[in-house]
Amino acid sequence: MEFEIEMLVSEALGLTLVAAMSVVLALIKLGCRISSIERIRLFNFSRKRKGFVNFSIQSLRHENPPYGRVATTLTIFCILLYLTLSHKLFFAVVVSDSMYPTFQRGDMYLAQAIQINPKPGDIIMFRRPDVGLPVSHRVLRVVGNKIYTGGDASGPDLIPITRKDVIAQAVMIGGKPIVIPGIGKYFILNAKQLRNIGPYGEEYLFYQKLIRAFKSYAMAIIVICLSIYVYLELEGYSYRKRIKK
Question: Rounded distance, CA 130 to CA 177, Å?
Answer without folding.
Answer: 26
